[in-house]
Amino acid sequence: FGHRIYRIGWFASPPFAVRGADGAPIGIAIDLVNQAARRRGIALQWILWKQSSEAALISKSVDLWPLITVTPARLKVLHISEPYLQNEHCLLVRDDKPYTRVEELATAKIGMANVAIDSVNLRKVLPSASPLPRTRIEDVVEDVCRGNSDGAFMDRFTAIAALLQQIDCSGHKLRWIPVPQVRSNLGVGSTFEFHTVADAI
Q1: Strand-pair partners of 13
Q2: What is the CA radius of gyration of the chain?
Q3: What is the pTM of this model?
Q4: Which residue stretches of the chain are H helix?
Q5: Confidence category of residue 52, pLDDT binned at 50, 70, 90
Q6: Quick one: 113 exposed, middle or buried, by C-beta within 10 A (0-12, 13-18, 19+)?
């Protein structure tokens, strides 16, 4: 892969990518990709990106993305490696709410932070729900705590991270309802130009 330094984008998405004490990215996806790149002699420069991973790659603002969901639409406009992670999804709700099954939130207001993917998946299981998009997971969780939304749709790894760092939830606890109908495969994303680098990682 020569002496080139590949630009790889990231944004805060606990537990996959978070800002470390020194401002550099750390987390499950960051650590895995860094280790794989080192083994293959691939030099990476991490770039914090405020918008979607898809937008970062399509605009060629970055060459790679450490973890991106595979969809047929995305494969038309960018490259995604063989998946190295499968996500299951859930709905986070307040413990004082009566919901026990996904169907009970059919017309509910549902928060989400990974809008590009979560809105598509939410429509598959709750087509009549009202999506409430936010830019940060913390805001999505806070909406549930304050009663601004009825639930939060996210993958279970993100939900576990949110529950572990449970913010003050207005005297309530959060619990999750599994959404077994939705599973996502994720791999390393890249522009078509650098598909061999993504595949090598």
Answers
A1: 17
A2: 18
A3: 0.80
A4: 28-40, 53-58, 72-77, 115-125, 137-146, 156-164, 195-200
A5: confident
A6: buried
